[in-house]
Design goal:
Blueprint: H1 2-15, H2 25-49, E1 57-58, E2 64-74, E3 81-88, E4 92-95, H3 98-107, E5 119-123, H4 136-146, E6 152-162, E7 171-179, H5 182-187, E8 198-209, E9 211-214, E10 221-222, E11 237-247, E12 250-257, H6 264-267, E13 278-283, E14 286-287, H7 289-292, H8 300-319, H9 322-329, H10 335-350, H11 353-368, H12 370-377
Parallel strand pairs: 9-13
Antiparallel strand pairs: 1-14, 2-3, 2-6, 4-5, 5-13, 6-7, 8-11, 9-10, 11-12
Helix pairs in contact: 2-8, 10-11
Length: about 375
């Protein structure tokens, strides 16, 4: 009934337009250019919303973070034993200065000008915030593992950084693991000498990433940014010195970067500072408070799935199977069909179910017979059959 009434109204509008005359310009613009423009905006809108062209993007720099070191061992299929040896929560996090950014931009490949406000320097304390507290049982376990030749030891650095957005992924985490050499493994035997008082210095290669990328996911990514050389991405990790100390019965670890000359291009801005290790973070911009206030805390994928896909399905319904619908949508006169629908409705109100069923069967028979439908509704607007 609704479709027949709609077609009747549509045919009334068509009768006002004489056959063979051109369509008005505003109609061509509305249903041509503007329709295409709207479809392009629906498709490209989410991409533009999350791109750097979006004027409502907010900087999503890191506020706080933690870094820890773990010593683990494994032998074949045996599960690893993990011992935490270094932990720092008080990180110095600051946006890089313009001078420092210009230095890295000039000496490193892949750094973009848009990162100037989103590039942060993270500096670690050289010493752990707590002493190395290990139970006697764990101490004996670690000593026994070091004495086994087939046991392999690994050093893992874990980091976690907290930022304001995106919702559900405010904390971005990551880690890097290296295999300790046999030389370092033998040096660690001195830790378990009862009378040992002093220092053990381990040279740990390629432990800390120089540049980290923080995107919309809760996982960080090591950026392949290297010096402007023949192989610009060959040196993306920093080496460090891990120092074990025992003083007055207290055990603790110190972590510091290697000499300035070891990694000159990366350490040059800090050569007059202490030996603290530095990492650099590059955070993506996010659609922050503007959409959050309106309950639209969506990623680009979520936006496509929930909004664009729904609109796309609606547009598809308009044009889908149009050749099969033409027989029911190109009906010049729908008065008789509307009378059938009104008769069915009146019979239902009066409680005459048999008459209602009879009229309904007649209506279905009309729709199933193209000849009867053509005879009942006519051939074209304005022509009487």
């Amino acid at each position: 009934g609704i479709n027949a009434e709609y077609m009747g109204c549509d045919m009334d509008v068509r009768r006002t337009h004489k056959p063979g005359t051109p369509r008005p310009g505003w109609e061509k613009c509305t249903f041509g250019f503007l329709m295409v423009l709207i479809l392009l905006l629906i498709i490209l809108g989410p991409i533009l919303l999350f791109s750097t062209l979006n004027p409502i993007l907010e900087i999503n720099n890191v506020n706080t973070g933690t870094i820890s070191l773990e010593l683990s061992s494994s032998s074949g299929d045996k599960a690893s034993s993990i011992f935490e040896i270094f932990d720092v929560h008080n990180l110095d996090i600051s946006t890089v200065t313009p001078e420092m950014f210009r230095f890295f931009k000039a000496n490193y490949a892949g750094i973009e000008n848009e990162w100037a406000d989103r590039m942060q320097r993270v500096t670690l304390l050289t010493y752990s915030e707590t002493v190395w507290e290990i139970s006697p049982a764990s101490f004996r376990t670690l000593k026994g593992l070091l004495e086994r030749d087939e046991e392999k030891f690994y050093l893992t650095v874990n980091w976690a950084f907290t930022r304001p957005h995106p919702p559900g992924a405010e904390v971005a985490r990551g880690s890097n693991t290296i295999l300790l050499s046999e030389k370092m493994k033998k040096m660690m035997h001195n830790i378990f000498e009862e009378q040992f008082e002093g220092t053990i210095l381990l040279d740990v290669p390629n432990l800390f990433p120089k540049f980290l990328h923080l995107g919309a996911t809760p996982t960080t990514k090591v950026m392949r940014i290297g010096t402007n050389s023949l192989d610009p991405y060959s040196n993306v990790l920093s080496s460090c010195l891990l120092e074990y100390k025992k003083e007055q019965g207290q055990r603790y670890w110190i972590l510091k970067r290697k000499s300035y000359m070891i990694d000159k291009k990366f350490d040059e801005p800090f050569q007059n500072q202490d030996n603290a290790i530095s990492m650099f973070l590059v955070s993506d911009q996010v659609v922050g408070s503007f959409l959050s206030k309106n309950g639209m805390e969506l990623s680009v994928v979520g936006l496509y799935v929930t909004i664009v896909l729904a609109i796309g399905r609606f547009v598809r319904l308009i044009f889908d199977k149009i050749s099969q619908r033409v027989i029911y949508e190109e009906m010049p006169r729908t008065t008789d069909l509307m009378e059938f629908c009104d008769g069915i409705y009146i019979a239902r109100l009066e409680g005459d179910l048999k008459r209602e069923q009879y009229l309904y069967d007649m209506l279905i028979k009309l729709y199933r017979s193209p000849e009867l439908l053509l005879k009942l509704t006519g051939t074209r607007p304005g022509k009487e059959d």
